[in-house]
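Summary of Year 1 activities. Much of the first year was spent building the evaluation harness for sequence design. The harness presents a backbone, in tokenized form, and records the residue chosen at every position. We chose the following record to illustrate the format because it has been used consistently in internal testing since the harness was completed.
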């Protein structure tokens, strides 16, 4: 007797037995369970459907990649705490998709070194790179060349908008600067003097500062911006800048900066000046969180890092698998990758003394049972 016929007889027998047991008052079961049982008896899978002599196997989920697929998350200043929760969920999404993820970058704040690391990663021919370019224009040609070679490239946190990257994920720096301006303005009572410490040349930082100043000028007529100083992410420069501005304007009410390092220096100066200057920075690390908890820093604008990492990996996977998407346009007919999402906002939060305990990295990794970027 042919094997396919034998399978049909076994399947029919199991169905008959279940029907009898059902009439005898046993718990009802489904035909799917019967099929699974019959399949198990025959040593095959329940997903197989026997039709005559043909077997049709159920298709695998398109969101199950291969362990051979390698996706890098590439950043500058790899030791910065900000990247760790981003990579944590980038890595988690990679596990769920069944692909390999790698944390890459350079420990220095150096555009040339980041470009070198990028080229080294490209040479390994990974499936995709989730890139945070320190500056936009130097990456245009390297990104385009990598994409032409078949590597999926998406950007996050800071962008290279003139390149051919197809997805950019960030917390919307314009929204971030606007939100920071309005919250700090409210905190000082809608009148007084504010200042900005900036990091010139890094696109996302410049947008935050420019938007902060623009929002104050347009929305808060009783508040004056009395300082716009380059601290370049240097705590000592930030410390000296706040002391100098406060000497000039004794009623300085608050200072905003687009990153965390300057926040630490500004907070030290504010404390020495009596604690009346409200310090609002962007991004957090343990020192910033401890200062917020102690009341030395009023608050920190923090992007939803885990969302940035998770959806970074997910959308990078789709970029590398463009056949998953069939939009109603001419892209596929023209031989173009149809995955195009010029901007995704990963959202933001403001960290204050009221919610600071939720943002400690060690507690986050301990809760997840993770070693962070070390695994």
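For this record, the design step produced the sequence shown next.
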């Amino acid at each position: 007797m042919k094997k396919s016929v034998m399978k049909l007889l076994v399947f029919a027998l199991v169905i008959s037995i279940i029907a009898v047991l059902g009439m005898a008052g046993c718990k009802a079961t489904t035909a799917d369970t019967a099929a699974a049982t019959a399949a198990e008896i025959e040593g095959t899978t329940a997903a197989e459907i026997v039709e005559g002599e043909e077997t049709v196997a159920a298709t695998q989920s398109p969101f199950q990649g291969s362990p051979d697929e390698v996706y890098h998350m590439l950043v500058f200043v790899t030791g910065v705490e900000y990247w760790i929760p981003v990579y944590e969920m980038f890595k988690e999404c990679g596990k769920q998709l069944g692909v390999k993820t790698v944390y890459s970058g350079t420990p220095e704040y150096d555009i040339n070194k980041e470009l070198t690391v990028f080229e080294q990663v490209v040479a390994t021919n990974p499936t995709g790179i989730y890139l945070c370019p320190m500056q936009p224009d130097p990456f245009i040609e390297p990104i385009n060349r990598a994409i032409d070679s078949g590597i999926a490239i998406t950007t996050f946190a800071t962008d290279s908008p003139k390149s051919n990257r197809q997805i950019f994920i960030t917390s919307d720096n314009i929204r971030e600067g606007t939100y920071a301006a309005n919250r700090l303005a409210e905190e000082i009572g809608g009148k007084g003097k504010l200042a900005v410490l900036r990091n010139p040349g890094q696109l996302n930082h410049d947008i935050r500062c420019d938007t902060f100043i623009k929002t104050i000028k347009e929305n808060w007529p009783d508040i004056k911006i009395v300082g716009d100083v380059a601290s370049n992410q240097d705590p000592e420069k930030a410390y000296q800048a706040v002391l100098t501005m406060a000497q000039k304007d004794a009623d300085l009410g608050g200072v905003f900066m687009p990153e965390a390092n300057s926040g630490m220096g500004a907070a030290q100066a504010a404390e020495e000046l009596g604690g009346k200057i409200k310090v609002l920075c962007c991004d957090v690390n343990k020192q910033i969180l401890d200062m917020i908890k102690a009341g030395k820093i009023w608050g920190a604008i923090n992007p939803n890092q885990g969302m940035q990492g998770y959806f970074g990996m997910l959308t990078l996977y789709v970029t590398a698998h463009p056949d998953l998407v069939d939009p109603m346009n001419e892209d596929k007919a023209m031989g173009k990758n149809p995955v195009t999402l010029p901007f995704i906002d990963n959202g933001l939060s403001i960290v204050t003394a009221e919610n600071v305990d939720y943002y400690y990295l060690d507690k986050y990794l301990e809760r997840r049972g993770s070693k962070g970027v070390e695994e």
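Residues 36 and 47 are 8 Å apart (CA to CA). Quantitative recovery figures across the full test set are reported in Table 2.
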